[in-house]
Amino acid sequence: MIVVTTPSGQIGAQVLDKVLDSDEHIRVVVRDPSRLEAKARDRVEVVHGSHDDPDVVTKAFAGADTVFWVVPPNMRVQNVVDYYEDFTRPASEAIKAQGVKRVVAVSSLGRESGEIAKRTGHLSAAFAMDDLLEATGVSYRATSDVTAAATTLLLDDSWSGRGPAASCASPSKSRPNGLVRPGSKYSREGGSSRDPFLG
Question: Do 131 and 117 contact (CB within 8 A), yes or no?
Fold first, then answer.
C-alpha cells in the first residue's frame, strides 16, 4: 500500500495522479477530502486530518509499504526548522511503529554542503526533516530541486500564453531535475530501475 500526503497540493496531487494508474492500494492523508479530484476520491482510501497529528499518521501508515511525505509550506512560522521537525516527528514515530518500508520525501539539493547547510532557512529545515526520516531506518529517498520539479509539473496547457519558464541551472550540465528514479543515471546508487513508490 502507498500513502500519499498533501494529495491536493501542487506536488502531492501529481504524485497521486501517477500512482492512481497502478494496481496498488492507495491511502491519502487529507484535511479537506472535497479538494481531491473525483477520479481520486473513487479510488483511494481517505484518512481525514493533518499529517502532523500522531493519531492520524499512525492510522494512515498502518499496513503501508511506502509513504510519499511532504511538509506543507508555512511562510508564517517563526522558526522553520522547528516547524519541519515538529511536523515530521510524529511521522517518524509512526513509520517505525507501523513498519513502513520506504519513504519518498520532498527535500532539496545541497545537503552535503556542510556547515552552510545548517544556516539556510527552508533548506536547513528540509535537511532536518531528512535526518529525522533517515533515523527511522526506513529505505529513504529525498527528492531534490523542488523548485524545478514544481515548475516542471505545472507546465501544462494552462501555462500557454504566459511566457517562457526559466531556470537558473546551466543547460550544459547534466543533473537531476525534480523527482529522480532510483537506478537512473542521476540516482546515488544506480543500477536499479525500481520505482520509488512501487518498490
Answer: no
Q: Are 150 and 156 in contact (CB under 8 A)?
A: no
Q: How many CB atoms lie within 10 A of CB 178?
A: 17
Question: How do residues 6-52 score in pLDDT, each as one tens digit?
Answer: 999 988 998 999 999 889 999 999 999 999 999 899 899 999 999 99
pLDDT tens figures, 41-91 = 989 999 999 999 999 999 999 999 999 999 988 888 888 889 999 999 999
Distance between CA atoms of 31 and 10, rounded to whole angstroms? 15
Q: Which residues have C-beta within 8 Å of that of residue 1, sequence separation ≥ 6? A: 24, 25, 26, 27, 63, 64, 65, 66
From residue 101, give the alpha-carbon distance in Å to each of 13, 14, 16, 68, 188: 22, 22, 19, 12, 19
Please identify which residue in the block is written with the cell numbers 487529507: 30
Q: Which helix (H) or strand (E) holds 26?
A: strand 26-30
The CA angle 128-144-27, to the nearest 5 degrees, is 80
Cell of 3: 500513502
